[in-house]
Design goal:
The complex is a heterodimer. By secondary structure, chain A is α/β, with parallel strands linked by helices. Helix content of chain A is 45%, strand content 19%. Chain B has helices at 5-37, 44-59, 70-93, 101-120, 150-172, 174-184, 186-191, 196-221, 230-243, 248-268, 273-287, and strands spanning 130-131, 140-143, 146-149, 223-224. The chains are: A alpha/beta, B mainly alpha.
């Protein structure tokens, strides 16, 4: 092919074909409402993504069985981001530009929600994060919402629990410097614990993104200052290894953490080393309220396991979104956004959800303890 | 009660030596291959990963694995990786024996990416980390101010034993003598009747087996995951250069120095834990390019 022929005929033809392809993908099927989810289905925090996806799927099935939304069936499209921040941005772009979703659900990890949120905001597509607790996530813009509590509260919960319930006065902190969730939660914990009159003996860090698997250097430094407890606000994979290695080098005081601990994998990794440790969470499977137990039964029937908090939050987020679309009476982005913002007194599995002016939910937290390899309910803390 | 600075220092020293002996084991593979072929096998860190998985499947109880004891698990992993090392050498590096060195180097990076991505495929190992089964009940021994776990003792003991065996092989066996001859001058050795291809295969087998042992020992205290070999691979390469690339005792010393340095840095400045390895690399290249125990001219890789 001569060069000029390429320029005149082939290249424009190729462009046209590509444009047609892109347009074809963007066309919404008339009888479904497309909702996108970006999640870590594989990688370092795979159970977060799998659980949220399961929860969202369960909610969508129920809603569709009951006739769908606005007379249409709900279709959930899930993109895996392999637990990587850069992949999260790619996944959200694909959901919006290629699949033409009307709203986005995700992520669990705050760093990944922070990567996806600006893209949703720019495209004026409402996004609800089920479980990202770092306050910065919803500050990205007026299209970004969350249905969980935020870390200034979660950090306070654990600081007060350490100071008042455990009577700890000296606590060491070991956080994941590569995750916004972990650095934020460590800051809020320290602030409140020092305000109460406690002392932070050591503040040390590791990096899950660099693939750290050996924490004994930091733990040895922590042990030397003889703290009453160690606050480890990381994700379950590293926390499991940290628990093992801290017992290995002779740290016997309890470890404390946040909702990043909640995974069926935690105990599989940390084993007996985690016995007696505490973490804050969004809900407990021991909640006796009938609609929580009904959800647990349904989830167990569908997936075999009891739902963790990520599954429960995923379920709630999908139901809140569908409820908002129903109230909006249309799938137009602005209308959905306004309807989500007006969510008030929604009875979720993880509590009653009302969104405030900052687009965050204000909800109680529970403290759980690892006992015989299971997460036992200890107490509920009101905001 | 708070510990004094000296006892913490001793504790970090012990931890660092245990961790460094892992680097030593991996570094040996780099240095042996370099000694003979003047080439850095960048797929070495991934052989360590495959070794860890082989150990994982060997000791995981049936039906998920073979349910072997740890000792047999390590041996099986070493045998599997020795075989893998030989296959990789034969398939990827031998056809390029007389090609420019850069070609082989890029091929090695290609092999590395191939292993990492094949391992991540769901039908192979899958991308998710897996906790290593608890094959040994962890116990902590208190020796004066220093606490040592039985796992750390196992890591140090196994590493030392393997390094001694390697030294015996290199210095006192026929194949060891052939390896030294080839590393001294490949062409002359060939003229003297040494089968250089066999020697090179043996070198890859020994190096890969040591990496596999290191992989299982690390997995024992952490987990297995398809990208677990990248960082230790690079660090062990630094350790090999630090000790003097091509020099077997140098790789051991380099690994221990790197392990201890990392622990001392991570104790006070955890952010710089990974940086220290590369700072040391730059320093040694500036001050003593042949490495701590290295001799002879350095060639451009």
């Amino acid at each position: 092919m001569s060069r000029s022929l390429w320029h005149r005929v082939a290249a424009p033809a190729l462009l046209l074909a590509l444009a047609a392809l892109a347009a074809g993908c963007g066309v919404k099927k008339a009888n479904t409402i497309r909702i996108g989810e970006f999640a870590s289905l594989t990688g370092d925090t795979a159970t977060f993504g799998i659980s949220t996806r399961n929860g969202i799927e369960l909610a969508a099935q129920e809603i569709n069985a009951a006739g769908g939304v606005l007379g249409k069936q709900v279709e959930v499209l899930v993109e895996d981001n392999r637990s990587q921040t850069t992949e999260a941005a790619t996944a959200v772009t694909r959901l919006i530009n290629q699949y033409g979703v009307v709203a986005v659900l995700g992520e669990v990890a705050s760093s990944r929600s922070l990567a996806g949120a600006p893209i949703c905001q720019r495209n004026r597509i409402p996004m609800i994060t089920p479980a990202s607790t770092n306050p910065a996530v919803t500050q990205v813009g007026d299209y970004i919402f969350r249905i969980c509590f935020i870390d200034p509260f979660q950090g306070t919960v654990m600081a007060r629990f350490a100071f008042n319930t455990l009577k700890a006065r000296k606590v060491a902190v070991l956080f994941d410097k590569s995750q916004d969730y972990s650095t934020g939660l460590a800051d809020f914990f320290r602030e409140e614990f020092e305000r109460l009159g406690g002392k932070i003996t050591t503040e040390s860090s590791y990096s899950s993104v660099s693939g750290d698997i050996d924490f004994k250097a930091q733990l040895t430094g922590i042990r030397a200052k003889a703290p009453d407890a160690v606050f480890v606000p990381g994700y379950y994979n590293q926390v499991g290894m940290i628990a093992k290695q801290s017992r290995e080098i002779g740290i016997t005081v309890p470890l404390l953490g946040g909702d990043g601990w909640d995974s069926p994998k935690l105990v599989e990794i940390g084993g007996k080393a985690l016995e007696g440790d505490y973490f804050s969470n969004h809900y407990s499977v021991e909640n006796k309220s009938p609609h929580v137990q009904a959800f647990i039964t349904k989830y167990r029937r569908a997936y075999g396991d009891a739902p963790d908090a990520m599954a429960a939050l995923g379920y709630d987020s999908a139901r809140i979104l569908c409820d908002a679309i129903r109230r909006a009476g249309s799938t137009e982005a602005q209308a959905i956004r306004d309807a989500i913002a007006q969510t008030s007194g929604f009875e979720g599995v993880t509590g009653t959800i009302t969104l405030n002016a900052e687009r965050n939910a204000v909800k109680p937290a529970v403290v759980l303890q690892v006992k015989d390899g299971r997460f036992r309910y200890v107490e509920t803390v009101q905001p | 009660m708070q510990d004094g600075a000296l006892s913490v220092f001793l504790q970090q020293l012990v931890n660092g030596l245990a961790w460094g002996s892992i680097y030593s084991l991996i570094a040996l593979g780099y240095t042996m291959v370099y000694g003979i072929l003047r080439f850095i096998n960048f797929a070495h860190g991934d052989i360590y990963m495959i070794g860890a998985y082989a150990g994982y499947f060997a000791v995981t109880p049936r039906p998920g694995g073979l349910g072997l004891g740890l000792f047999w698990g390590v041996l099986l992993a070493m045998a599997a990786c020795a075989l893998l090392g030989v296959i990789i050498e034969r398939a990827a590096y031998r056809p390029l024996r007389n090609a420019p060195r850069l070609t082989v180097l890029i091929t090695a990076i290609g092999v590395s990416l191939l292993l990492e991505n094949v391992a991540q495929h769901p039908s192979v190992f899958g991308p998710n980390p897996r906790p290593f089964p608890d094959v040994i009940a962890m116990r902590t021994l208190h020796l004066g101010p220093v606490a040592v776990s039985n796992l750390q003792l196992l890591i140090v003991g196994a590493s030392l034993a393997l390094m001694v065996v390697l030294q015996l092989i290199v210095n006192y066996t026929r194949i060891g003598r052939a390896m030294r001859a080839v590393s001294y001058d490949r062409e002359t050795a060939a003229l003297m009747g040494v089968n250089t291809d066999t020697v090179i295969s043996a070198t890859f087998a020994f190096g890969s087996a040591l990496a596999a042992a290191a992989g299982v020992l690390v997995a024992l205290v952490s987990q297995v995951e398809p990208l677990m070999g990248i960082m230790p691979g690079i660090k062990a390469f630094v350790a090999a250069v630090l000790g003097g690339i091509g020099n077997v005792p140098g790789a051991m010393v380099g690994g221990l120095v790197l392990g201890v340095s990392e622990y001392m840095v991570a104790w006070h400045w955890p952010d710089f834990r990974d940086a220290i390895a590369f700072a040391l690399l730059i320093l040694i290249l500036l001050v003593r390019p042949t490495g701590i125990l290295g001799t002879g001219a350095v060639e451009k890789v």
